[in-house]
Amino acid sequence: AAHGAVLWLKPLPSPACACAGAHRGSMRPDNSSANLEGLTQDGTVSSYARLSGSATGSREGLRNAVAERLDAYFGISERGSTLVTEVRAGAIAWMTMSYILVVNPVILCRAASPGNPLLSEAVMTATALSAAFGSLCAGLLGDAPLALMPGMGLNAYFTFGICHTFHVTWQEALSCCFVSGAVLVCFSVLGVCNFVVSKVLSEHLKKTITVAIGVFQALIGFQAMGLVVGSPDTLVTLGDLSLSNHRLYLALAGFLLISAMLVVGEVHGAILIGIWAMAGCAWIFGLADPPAGLLEFPRFDSTFMVSFAAWDPVSGNLTAMLIGSTAMLFVALFDIAGVQYGLMGMAGLLKDGNVPRSASIFSAAGLSTMVGAMLGTSPVIIANESSAGIVEGAKTGLMAVVVAILFFLSAFIGPVLSAIPHVATAVPLVLIGAFMMAPCRGIDWDNLRVAIPAFLTMTVVPFTYSIHNGIIAGILMDMFLGLCSKFTSKKADETLPTPVKAASPPRSGDMATPNVRRFSTPHMTMAAAACGEPKAEIAKQLLAKLRGGGGSLQAPYSPSQLVPSPMDEVERRKEVALRSALEAYLEGH
Q1: Per residue in 403-422, is it b (16+ CB within 10 Å) or e — as a string?
Q2: DSSP run (H or E) holding 238
Q3: CA–CA dist 95, 376 (Å, integer)
């Protein structure tokens, strides 16, 4: 009965009572009380028991079927994740992203004019639905744990860079968003976006972008917490540490709570627990207003208000529209290219150094930007807050689908989301920044050709408060140094005499001239020391050990083996190759 099967027991005569008792005793113990209650006095199973058991089995079968379908589509088990992990990670990512529902209307509504209002409730609806559509596309088409939402920076450019600078209406500015999204979709189909990711962004820049985003997120979090504030003298400084700054100490308490759960308890969902704990404390102690309600019907006042009138050459605003659309396009392109690589690398989902289904992710961003323009919001890009879900263990597009569902519901629960204080969602941004520092160890800091563009990207992103500014700065410096290196190599090849024997590279002891010592940088000194005499000494010692039987060359097989195993033969060949390489190295030194 526990599996929904119908069990028929015919009435037994009195001599066979023992057999009847045996039948009853053999029933499954996990639902024994229900089984006994279903038995009638004559030993048969009642119709109620059969129907309830069948219903229970049907529900379990339906749940299992849905779980299997999701696992098969998203490859959850194949990527080492679970259904519960993906759902929990999606909820956490949505919580860290939900601030956009409050912040985006504040910025976009400043594009309105006295005779042309833009309601914040309508912008909140457009923000929620465009984020839901974009995340759904990224999850279903790209199968990536990347959630999308209207981008910070692009919304400011929409208001101040287009509406205020070019003196156009917000309806006309929405047309720039629509056009940039359409071109982004075309670029993704034609392969231009993949070219940017594979050719324009070098490997060290791809790693650097992840670190830069982490530092940027931490700065945003510190600012929202009140730990870092602006200063006219030093640009930034330490915030107010007085005991009257209750929000700061609430944030610090939440920071300690989440850190303890992550490090000591390894609690799954620690970030989500911390967010709700801080929000609850803020409501209880009066640090933030509690929700005024639970549900509110969405407003669609800005839907289908996009205007292409400014694209008419007679209007005189065609140049402004072209500039605005181009700027939005390339800002979104470089931002999406860098963020998707960084976050997918953080999740361990890169294949041969590339993002799987990258074109689908770009297309999802372009389509959601077009939909967002029709709804009344700025361009949609990948949210770097998706890292919160990745840190929680998300590895598939199911996380993005969960975020999409929650953003859709967010259009109806605006009062609750508006009541969550910014300080509650700021703390996770700081902690996530720590998880994004790992790619630093993959950057060759001893190579200035790599170190300078990497450092420039890491510093420009937080100091200019813009991801795309740092990416563009790093790309330009990387290209410049690459051209310089090629030009120098070409000139060196042209001036080389007929080779007699190439001089050995300088060692730390060979930097003997005063001028070389005077003008050598610490980096040059360390690099020279790294390739100097100690390497030759180590090579001599290792070669002597191999020749003297210190390795396994003299006894490649164990005494119990009469025939060498394939693994022993492989090790023998490795040592022979190593000895040959050491001999060749020492001949050149």
Answers
A1: bbbbbbebbebbebbbbbbb
A2: strand 235-238
A3: 23
